[in-house]
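Subject: design request, 79 residues
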């Protein structure tokens, strides 16, 4: 049985004026190095399915979509 040791990235964002300049790739590469330093065997990245730029970036670095979850957010407590 293989035991996964996850390294989680809950949010990775680059402000619009710095997108398409390799900033996200450098941030992700740094996170991968940190994960390896912590002996992680899996990198878990949260993103939106309607964010093809982020998904494309992750896939260029070898990531694969293994699960998709649906989260709902409410703008107020009075629902």
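Subject: RE: design request

Done. Sequence follows.
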């Amino acid at each position: 049985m293989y035991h996964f040791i996850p390294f989680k990235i809950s949010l990775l964002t680059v402000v619009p004026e710095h997108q398409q300049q390799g900033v996200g790739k450098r941030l992700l590469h740094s996170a991968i190095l940190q994960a390896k330093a912590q002996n992680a065997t899996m990198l878990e990245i949260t993103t939106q399915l309607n964010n093809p730029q982020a998904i494309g970036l992750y896939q260029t670095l070898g990531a694969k979509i293994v699960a998709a979850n649906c989260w709902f957010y409410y703008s107020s407590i009075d629902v």
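The radius of gyration is 15 Å.
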